[in-house]
Design goal:
The structure is a single chain. The protein is of the alpha/beta class and 340 residues long. Helix content is 46%, strand content 13%. The strands form 3 sheets. It has an 8-stranded parallel β-sheet. A two-stranded antiparallel ribbon has the order 1-12.
Length: 340
């Protein structure tokens, strides 16, 4: 099983780069309006947010991607250096393989070595994890919090995937009650709806990474590994990220919402926060820049994202992230229809 997991990690990266990515988070259906008389000094715009008791200079996290192979180790080293440079959080990929194979730990522990306590590190396990495994995974990287991922769609298409998802809610409750740090519930690309958000609220979850449809498509990625059944007719399955943000926020003002799933630039970040997110996360977009253009190219991309976010905030008359969250918006097109 360990060798299968290791090979799967490599195939996920390769298949992501091959995937068509005809996915739409529906941010284009969020209309925000120009403010021609904003009382703004651009140099005073504040993009800082509080996250896990830490002040971040910008509301962005590098979200869970990979780990467990030599290729993963190189990627995680570069990503952790980027997070160190920008002082933003980083979430690692699923640590299950590192709990089975000592040799796989290095690709995760390297993130801790790069961190120097300058940015929060988020660990990652599935919703069926044991309390013991949760604590081991957390200790492995000195995690500031742990992501518990929900990936039913991925597992069902994965040839060797799980098929029994009973008891997940009760297990998440047990993990939360037994862990002395925060738990972040994360989908893997198909979104979280109101019903799921209400269940998570019932068990006291505060942090939710919606990971909606619009970014990395694990049905497509796993289908490339499945030579028995063609799942291409399910490639459009999922809740668009914009709708998922609206749905989760409608359940509770107390949720800390991380918007991910097709967040590819400054406009998506701004619209996510306007819709109700507290911060955003990128994974596939950053991976593409890193693998296709290298470290400096990725740093340049992120510098541009930060600069353009501030420009859009100035055009909206928002001096800080809290004011940005108060900006009025209207829904159009398909997003309006499905939110109706």
């Amino acid at each position: 099983m360990t060798e299968i997991r290791r090979q799967r990690k490599i195939e996920h990266i390769e298949n992501y780069l091959r995937s068509f990515r005809d996915n739409n988070p529906l941010f284009e259906d969020v209309y925000i309006e120009h403010n021609a008389l904003g009382d703004i000094n651009f140099d005073e715009i504040d993009t800082s947010v509080e996250f896990l008791g830490r002040k971040l200079s910008f509301p962005l996290m590098i979200d869970a991607m990979t780990g467990g192979s030599t290729v993963s180790s190189d990627i995680n080293e570069d990503l952790s250096n980027i997070c160190y440079e920008f002082k933003i959080p980083m979430a690692v990929g699923s640590q299950s393989i590192a709990l089975e194979d000592e040799n796989a730990k290095e690709s995760f522990e390297i993130v801790k070595e790069q961190c120097f306590s300058k940015f929060p590190i988020i660990g990652n396990l599935g919703a069926n994890a044991s309390v013991d495994d949760l604590k081991k995974a957390s200790d492995m990287i000195d995690a500031s919090a742990m992501q518990i991922h929900l990936n039913i769609a991925q597992e069902l298409v994965m040839p060797e995937g799980d098929r029994n998802f009973k008891g997940y809610k009760d297990n998440i409750r047990k993990l939360k009650e037994s862990y002395d740090k925060d738990i972040i519930i994360k989908e893997v690309g198909f979104g979280i709806n109101k019903i799921t958000a209400e269940k998570l609220k019932d068990i006291g979850i505060k942090y939710i990474d919606v990971a909606g449809f619009g970014g990395t498509n694990f049905i497509e990625i796993e289908d490339m590994r499945n030579f028995e059944i063609d799942y291409s007719d399910l490639y459009q399955w999922g809740i668009p990220t914009a709708k998922s943000i609206i749905d989760v926020r409608s359940v509770s003002d107390d949720f800390f919402i991380i918007a991910s799933g097709g967040v590819s630039g400054a406009m998506d970040i701004v619209k996510s926060i306007v819709l109700g997110a507290n911060m955003c996360a990128m994974s596939g977009e950053v991976l593409s820049y890193l693998l296709r253009g290298g470290y400096d190219y990725t740093v340049s991309f992120l510098n541009g994202v930060i600069q353009k976010t501030k420009v859009i905030m100035a055009l909206l008359g928002a001096k800080n992230i809290e004011e940005l969250r108060q900006v009025d918006y209207k829904l159009t097109g398909k997003l309006k229809d499905i939110c109706g």
